[in-house]
Amino acid sequence: xxxxxxxxxxxxxxxxxxxVITRSTDDLPEGDVLIKVxxxxxxxxxxxxxxxxxxxxxxxxxTPGIDAAGEVVESSDPAFKAGDEVICIGFDLxxxxxxGFGEYIRVPAGWVTALPRGLSTRESMVIGTAGFTAALxxxxxETMGAKPADGPVLVTGATGGVGSIAVMLLAKQGYEVIASxxxxxxxxxxxxxxxxxxxxxxxxxxxxxxxxxxxxxxHSIDCVGGEILSNVIKGLQPLGSVAICGLVASPAFTxxxxxxxxxxxxxxxxxxxEIPIEYKNRIWDKLANQWKLSDLDAATQEVGxxxxxxxxxxxxxxxxxxxxxxxx
Length: 328
Ligand SMILES: NC(=O)c1ccc[n+]([C@@H]2O[C@H](COP(=O)([O-])OP(=O)(O)OC[C@H]3O[C@@H](n4cnc5c(N)ncnc54)[C@H](OP(=O)(O)O)[C@@H]3O)[C@@H](O)[C@H]2O)c1
Hints:
Layout lengths: L2 E9 L4 E9 L8 E10 L1 H7 L16 E9 L9 E5 L14 E4 L4 E3 L6 H23 L9 E3 L5 H12 L4 E5 L5 H7 L3 E4 H5 L13 E4 L3 H9 L6 E4 L13 H5 L3 E4 L7 H12 L11 E4 L4 H9 L6 E5 L1
Parallel strand pairs: 8-9, 8-11, 9-10, 11-12, 12-13, 14-15
Antiparallel strand pairs: 1-2, 3-4, 3-6, 3-15, 4-5, 5-7
Helix pairs in contact: 1-9, 2-3
Bound molecules: NADP nicotinamide-adenine-dinucleotide phosphate (NAP).
């Protein structure tokens, strides 16, 4: 039994209260692998969990944190042994299973990825679920044939966690990147990550009744949904693809069949949570090798457990840029 620190969210009748408390590894659920967490990261979903969103977390009190990386302490599964460095993201981690905002987690072996050679635990958590999702988006549009010569790729919600890493990954692979952002003062930041052109969120937010407009981008990674996604689809080049991963603007969007039957465009769904562990391992391997980002710190701020409450508030206020690494 080991005592450890954890970020702790309690639900009262009319509010959510957070604090940092001491817990014991005996309090953790049954599972194959006990992991001492070195790093976690803050994602939009953690903010939803910490504020009591029942679609993410039903049982309180609770420790959020959908991301964790660290060292195996004990394992009943032969795939892992004490001392192995590992990553655990998605599945139920941080939803209704105590997550990476605690110094220890215990999880099924099927949720765990061996840290690939070429990536540190710190780098894996700067990437985190957000960056991993950006990589899934790139993987999927390339599976549909996307390549740099096709033309520019539009990233929406570009200063966010998914968006920032998407801009970096696309630029590193040689794509021309158009970044759309609601933050007028982040143009230089987005260009420093690799965007060629920055457009305002307002340009994409206007309701346009036309079913299609002149093609403006070859492909897109959309983090926001809503009217912006409707306009992204209208402006895709023939045979273009948009990978859809987020809903910060709205889960709903409108379209007609015309872009699909006249331009052959594709909408591609992205799920980083429940995809098979073998698929996750393959994407982590790419992030450690051909897609390795050397300048991750350009998009990273670092916090401890006692700094988490204001970060969560800033996420809902749309004030966070890039990735927030949690160090234990
Ligand atoms: N499918 C999956 O498996 C998966 C995995 C990870 C995340 N997600 C989802 O992807 C989305 C982005 O996640 P994230 O971690 O990148 O979140 P984030 O860091 O909070 O970034 C979201 C970005 O969206 C933009 N934005 C904020 N409010 C907006 C609004 N009302 N309308 C339009 N744009 C708005 C902002 O960028 P700008 O100011 O630059 O516009 C913001 O930085 C979330 O919906 C999250 O749930 C899904």
